[in-house]
Amino acid sequence: MEKGKNKLKLYGFNNLTKTLSFNIYDVCYTKTEEDRKKYIEYIDEQYNSERLTKILTNVTEMIGACVLNIAKQDYDPQGASVTLLISEEEVPLYILDPSCNRGILTPTRENIVAHLDKSHVTVHTYPETHPQNEISTFRVDIDVSTCGQISPLKALNYLIDSFDSDIITIDYRVRGFTRDIHGHKLYIDHDITSIQDYIAQETLDRYNLIDMNIYQSNIFHTKMMVRDIKLDNYLFEKSESELNEQEKKDITDKLKREMTEIFYGINLPNVTK
Predict the structure, then answer these.
(1) What is the rounded distance in angstroms from the CA atom of residue 227 to the CA atom of residue 225?
(2) What's the CA dihedral at 231, 236, 241, 245 to 10 degrees?
(3) pLDDT tens digits, the chain, 273 residues: what are they?
(4) d(CA 172, CA 16)
(5) Among 23, 33, 54, 236, who pairs with 169 as Cys (CB 3.0-4.6 Å)?
(6) Which residue, among 104, 116, 106, has the nearest Cα to 68 in the 3D structure?
(7) Cβ–Cβ < 8 Å for 112, 49
(8) If DSSP codes are grouped into helix, strand and coil, which group holds residue 30?
C-alpha cells in the first residue's frame, strides 16, 4: 500500500483479506405523508441500481481490480442492491467461468452482481421513514472485500463523497496471514493506526469522529457524524427562509435527536413538555 515505504517481498500470493464496510445515513425532514412518499421516490431515483453499479465500477477501477461479474436489482416498493465479483488481475477468457458477464449487461437483465477474482464489492440501500417524528432516513450498506495487494482503502474518500453522508460507520479488518520469503507470517502488510489515517482532512473537518479499535486483531472501527446542521440541506421541497425561529429550532432538535440515536446506537428517552 502507498502508506508503506518498503514493498514487502512475499513467498507466493498475498493471502491477506482486507474488508472495508460502510453504513452511511442520510437524514431528511419530511413534514407530511406526501413529503415522505416523495422523499422515498427521490432516493429510489437518485440511487437506483444503475447509478450504484457505476459507483461500484469506479471503486473497482480505483483499487486496481477487474470486474468479473455484475448483478443488480431494484426492489419494489423501494431499495436496490448491486454486487460485483472482481479480480486483482484480468482473468483470461478461457479461464473465466461461463456464468460471469464481465460487467456486460443485456438490456433485459434486471439484477446485477459484480464479482472480483477472490474479491467482491456490494451495496444495498434502505430508504425508510419515521411514523411520528417527521424524519426520513436513507441507509446505504457497502462492503469492499479484497485480497492480494489491492486495497479497499484507496476508495474510502470516493465512497464517502458519493453519498449525502450525515452519519457514517466504517469498519476495516485485515484477516488471515501471508508469508515473506523466509516463511515468516505477516498478519498485516501496511501501516495503520486508525481509519482516519486514510480520510481526507477536509472530510475530517466536517465531522465529529470517534474510534473503537482492536489493534491486536487488526480490527478498526470509526464513527462519523456531521458537525453542522444547515437546515436547507435537510428540508424537502422547502427552504429555511420559509420557517419562523420556533420551527427552525423544532426541526433542528428532531434532526439532532435522530442523528444522535443512530450515531450512538441508542433510543433517547421521550421528553414531554
Answers:
(1) 6
(2) -60
(3) 444 445 656 666 777 889 999 999 999 999 888 998 888 888 888 889 999 999 999 999 898 888 888 888 888 878 888 888 877 656 444 445 555 555 555 443 333 444 444 588 899 998 888 777 899 999 999 999 888 778 899 999 999 999 889 999 999 999 988 888 888 888 888 899 999 999 999 999 999 999 999 999 999 999 999 999 999 999 987 899 999 999 999 999 999 999 999 999 999 988 655
(4) 13
(5) 23
(6) 116
(7) yes
(8) coil
- Of 88, 69, 219, 220, whose CA–CA distance to 147 is shortest? 88
Model pTM score:
0.81
The contacts of residue 256 (CB under 8 Å, 6+ apart) are 229
Nine cell digits for residue 151: 486495497
In terms of Cα–Cα distance, which of 101, 98, 92 is closest to 72?
101
Q: Write out the catalytic residue numbers.
A: 119, 124, 147
- Kindly state the cell numbers that stand for 265: 446506537
